[in-house]
Amino acid sequence: MIARTKKKLTYQDYIGFPDDGNRHEIIDGDHFMNPAPSVYHQAVSRRIQFQLYTQIELKQLGIVADAPIDVQLTPHDIVQPDLVIVLAGRSIITPTKIKGVPDHLIEILSPSSDYNDRVLKFNLYEREKVPEYWIVDPFEHEVQQCLLGPSGYQRSTHESRVRCSYLGGEIEVDLSAVW
């Protein structure tokens, strides 16, 4: 659901949104609100996070954070991705949010977020040069991996395993353990 405003909203507007159990985001200055994710959505997120956590965070290679976490990409773009990976040595994590472009963002589709995740966030993440973006489809049991190249995102679809492009390609998610 979109609530159109006359002025482009910023992080200051964002922090004034109600804590009402909905997911509030600002994309290109417009306010978007979605209901809390389903139990299945959360289970899929947790299973992916667990695999990434054991391969990244436990080895002190970075952090794997889950929603709700604020990611401020620009003054007018504040999102709450399902999963966020920031590799070690980056200084974009503040006490209240991630301010800057993470190394990897993951969105898990739900009926209420499908358009935002596939179109609005895809365009936003590509424009802001997020190196890797996954669109996880829990209904079709596949992951669309979007890797940033010179002319934008290059997409590939995975149904059994998906390997991250960073850290030498050593990080992999076994999708049979996700669904």
Automatic annotation (TrEMBL):
Residues 13-158 form the Putative restriction endonuclease domain. This is Putative restriction endonuclease domain-containing protein. PANTHER family: SLL0198 PROTEIN-RELATED (PTHR34107), SLL1222 PROTEIN (PTHR34107:SF4). InterPro entries: Nuclease_put_TT1808, Restrct_endonuc-II-like, Uma2. It comes from Neorhodopirellula pilleata. SUPFAM superfamilies: Restriction endonuclease-like. Pfam families: Uma2. It comes from the Bacteria. Gene3D superfamilies: tt1808, chain A (3.90.1570.10).
